[in-house]
Structure formats: structure tokens, C-alpha cells
């Protein structure tokens, strides 16, 4: 397993209708490094955002889709998605406040 630092764990936030509705319940969705585990994701969120306490982390491995261009057949890259739930006394994450 690769040596993954906390600033390499979270790649980008997922902004969809479903993830935006879940923000009211202090649940945030991120694309994360494929080799990161739940404890690394929890530590990364708590270090990157001040005043945030993580209650629970759920992860999903997403397989790459089949793509075809002419006769060449290939796959897109695999991804990993993390759904992070914060505690009730935690601050909100500032990235999503203006959306």
C-alpha cells in the first residue's frame, strides 16, 4: 500500500443534487484516493477543516466504465467515494457554504 498523506486523501468534493440535499444533515461527499481507508479519511477531514468532528465515514469503490472509440475498447479509471457524516456540535465545512 502506498504511503498516503492526509493532504493526498481528499481529491475533490462531489456536487450533485443528492449530495447538496444531504448537507442539511451534515453529510458531505468527497472523491478520495483509491487506497485510503476510513480512518485516513476521517483524519484528513478533521485536519483540513478547522472545528470539524467526524461521526461516521462510509466508502464506495466505483469501477471504471467501459468506453469505446472506434475499434479500441478501454476503461475509465476506478474511483472511490466517501460519505462523511459530522457530529451535531461540529462546524459546517466552509467549501459548501456559498453553493
Characterise the protein shown here.
This protein has 99 residues and is an alpha+beta fold. The chain has a single domain, classed as Alpha-Beta Plaits (2-Layer Sandwich), CATH 3.30.70.330. Helices cover 21% and strands 35% of the residues. It has three helices and six strands; from the N terminus they run αβαβαββββ. The protein has a four-stranded antiparallel β-sheet with strand order 1-2-6-3. β4 and β5 form a beta hairpin. The longest helix has 11 residues. The N and C termini lie far apart (36 Å).
What characteristics describe this protein?
4-stranded antiparallel beta sheet; 6 strands; 99 residues; Alpha-Beta Plaits; 21% helix
Shape: globular
Kindly name the structural category.
alpha+beta
Helix content: 10-25%
At the first level of CATH, the class is: Alpha Beta
Which strand order do you get reading across the main beta sheet? 1-2-6-3
- According to CATH, the homologous superfamily is RRM (RNA recognition motif) domain
- H/E series, N to C? HEHEHEEEE
What is the end-to-end distance? 36 Å
Tell me the CATH architecture. Answer: 2-Layer Sandwich
User: In CATH terms, what is the fold-level topology?
Assistant: Alpha-Beta Plaits
Q: Strand fraction band?
A: 35-45%
Number of domains: 1
Give the low-pLDDT segments.
none
* Backbone CA Rg: 15 Å
